[in-house]
Specification:
Elements: H1 8-25, E1 48-55, E2 58-60, E3 64-72, E4 80-86, E5 93-94, E6 101-105, E7 113-122, E8 128-138, E9 148-149, E10 154-155, E11 163-167, E12 170-171, E13 179-184, E14 191-192, E15 199-203, E16 211-220, E17 225-234, H2 239-250, H3 268-272, H4 300-306, H5 321-324, H6 326-337
Parallel strand pairs: 2-8
Antiparallel strand pairs: 1-3, 3-6, 4-7, 5-6, 7-8, 9-12, 10-11, 11-15, 13-16, 14-15, 16-17
Helix pairs in contact: 2-6
Domain Cadherin: 51-149
GO molecular function, one term: calcium ion binding
InterPro entries: Cadherin-like_dom, Cadherin-like_sf, Ig-like_fold, PKD/Chitinase_dom, PKD_dom_sf
């Protein structure tokens, strides 16, 4: 006959049964104290966190801080560390380290912003612990950059007595609002219609000879200013190029008869210069020669374009035209002042 020899698993089962019988005989007392007893399925215990540090705790935007966690696991389990930030936006960047130390790079911000960084420590068996650390992120004002301004002022050519258009191109790399200030190098020479705009018209003085003026524009972003200058020779008007087009645009519809003032291109000069006006004029009109060379104030043409002292104002049907376009009246007066040449 062979004696029963239990297999190793059977022996373990038998051993557990004997412990169970012994436990019952002792009235249900725990068995952890029994020599050689091992709990076959001990309960997992969560890790604990004793300290979380951010060094430094205040950083500039775009800079980084070092994070460190002191944690332990009562069961000796290997721990993993997961980080998040609040607020989530704008997002900073956690480094690629996987242990208890990590870096965090702060995002770009508009104003100083506190962030809370949270770490979750896990043992991989369902146990975890959480802790937080606060980091203050400081907005760093960007250094101001000067406006980018074109090297040269743009000017209409040819520049003729009357009105001259000037402009400057400029941008600001920081997106700042730009302001403009136009002037002449000798203050008070002529008038700018829009002295605070990127483009302006300059109304010249009346000129009898070509004259050079130096224009200046200063562009500012509120902190830094850039100035450009440009000398420009302003010419005396020529009759065919600069004066006749005014008659063609405004006057020939009404003044194209050989019996009166005829402003058609092949008749206008003879009809104006040293030619007496026809018809009756009010007693306060003064001289009635249509154009008196070198004397715009006593030229009937100028009186008719400027007001009503000599009767109805020209152009007919648009009496305020030269009030709205003062540069053109300056151009006519300058042509007369320079001698009213037929050129």
């Amino acid at each position: 006959m062979h004696a029963f020899q239990p297999t190793p698993p059977a022996r373990r089962t038998l051993k557990k049964s004997l412990y169970a019988v012994l436990l019952l005989s002792l009235g249900g007392a725990g068995c952890e104290w029994l020599p050689g007893y091992e709990d076959p399925d001990p309960a997992n215990r969560a890790p604990t966190i004793t300290q979380v540090l951010a060094t430094p705790a205040s950083i500039n935007e775009g800079s980084n801080t070092g994070l460190s966690v002191t944690a332990s696991d009562p069961d000796g389990d290997e721990l993993t560390y997961t980080w998040t930030q609040t607020p989530a936006d704008p997002a900073g960047t956690f480094g690629g380290e996987t242990g208890s130390t990590r870096t965090w790079t702060a995002p770009t911000i508009a104003t100083n912003t506190p962030f809370t960084l949270q770490v979750t420590v896990s043992d991989g068996k369902g146990g975890s612990a959480e802790a937080t650390v606060d980091v203050e992120v400081v907005n760093v004002a960007s250094p101001n950059r000067a406006p980018t301004v074109n090297e040269a002022i743009t000017v209409t050519t040819p520049a003729i007595a009357g009105d001259v258009t000037l402009s400057i191109g400029a941008t600001d790399p920081d997106g700042d609002t730009l302001t403009y200030a136009w002037s002449t190098s000798v203050a008070g020479q002529g008038t700018f219609t829009a002295p605070a705009a990127a483009e302006t018209q300059w109304l010249s003085p009346e000129l009898a000879t070509a004259t050079t003026y130096t224009f200046q524009v200063t562009v500012s972003d509120g902190t830094v200013s850039v100035t450009r200058t440009l000398p420009v020779e302003v010419a005396v008007p020529q009759y065919a190029r600069d004066i006749q087009p005014l008659w063609d645009a405004q006057c020939t519809n009404c003044h194209s008869s050989p019996r009166g003032l005829d402003l058609r291109s092949d008749k206008s000069y003879a009809s104006l210069v040293n030619t007496a006006g026809t018809g009756g004029y009010p007693s306060g009109c003064g001289g009635t020669t249509r154009v008196v060379p070198s004397d715009p104030n006593n030229s009937l043409l100028v009186k008719k374009l400027s007001g009503t002292a000599c009767g109805g104002r020209m152009p007919q049907g648009n009496a305020g035209y030269f009030d709205n376009n003062p540069g053109q009246l300056i151009r006519i007066r300058s042509w007369i002042l320079a001698g009213a040449a037929n050129n």
